[in-house]
Amino acid sequence: MRAPDVLTSVRVLIAASIWWPVSAGDWAVTGIMLAAAWLTDSSDGRLARRMNVEGVLGPHDLTVDTAVAASLLLGFGLGDEFTLGLWTLLLIALGALYLIRVNEAAALLIQATGYLLFFVGSQRAGSQAWVVPAATAAAIGVIDRKRLTDHLLPMFFDALRHPLRSGDLADDG
User: Fold this and answer.
1) Torsion angle of alpha carbons 139, 142, 143, 146, nearest 10°?
2) Residue ranges per domain, the chain?
3) What is the pLDDT along the chain (173 residues), one digit of tens a residue?
4) What does the alpha-carbon distance between residue 96 and residue 90 come to, in Å, rounded to a whole number?
5) Chain centroid to CA 164: how far?
6) How much is the pTM?
7) Under 8 Å between Cβ of 70 and 110
8) Whole-angstrom Cα distance, residue 116 to residue 81?
9) Left if phi > 0, otherwise alpha if psi is -120 to 50, otherwise beta: which for 126?
10) CATH topology of domain 3-161
């Protein structure tokens, strides 16, 4: 397995398990897992380009990123922090739109919702766990500022402008 795929695989494992600490209200573990997911997301694509290889999991990057956030939403629904019904409906609706139409806007909305709820939930609980992923996101934004401004933000806003179109899975890693 190539190094970029190892990093993406770590994120797959995080997606499969992050719901557990969220549902248990363990903000510190959730924050560390979220920061690790963002670090591996930022690194896998850069490493693949540097090594001049295409990872087997590279084309599924957006799906893996979305799975991390969907798992967060699942954890919120299973825990006591937020109402299960609302997040279940949101996850089903946006997840179906994403899976049926390979729609980037739906994937990005799932991600934004899951991440926002982490920040809101951890602060409501009086936890400082939000600091680790916030610092991680800030560092990634500084390191990858050109990619952020030239690729990721335009992709995000373009996807939001066309929320019902079908699209290709974009490499945002």
Assistant:
1) 150
2) 3-161
3) 788 899 999 999 999 999 999 999 999 999 999 999 999 998 988 888 888 888 788 888 888 998 999 899 888 888 876 665 666 666 666 666 666 666 677 777 788 888 998 999 899 999 999 999 999 999 998 998 888 888 878 877 877 776 655 554 444 44
4) 10
5) 20
6) 0.82
7) yes
8) 13
9) left
10) Four Helix Bundle (Hemerythrin (Met), subunit A) (1.20.120)
Residues in the chain: 173
CA distances from 82 to 19, 21, 86, 134 (A): 13, 14, 8, 21
Label each residue of the chain as H, E or C. Answer: CCHHHHHHHHHHHHHHHCHHHHHCCCHHHHHHHHHHHHHHHHHHHHHHHHHCCCCCCHHHHHHHHHHHHHHHHHHHHHCCCCCHHHHHHHHHHHHHHHHHHCCHHHHHHHHHHHHHHHHHHHHHCCCCCCHHHHHHHHHHHHHCHHHHHHHHHHHHHHHHHCCCCCCCCCCCC
CA distances from 14 to 21, 33, 157 (A): 11, 7, 27
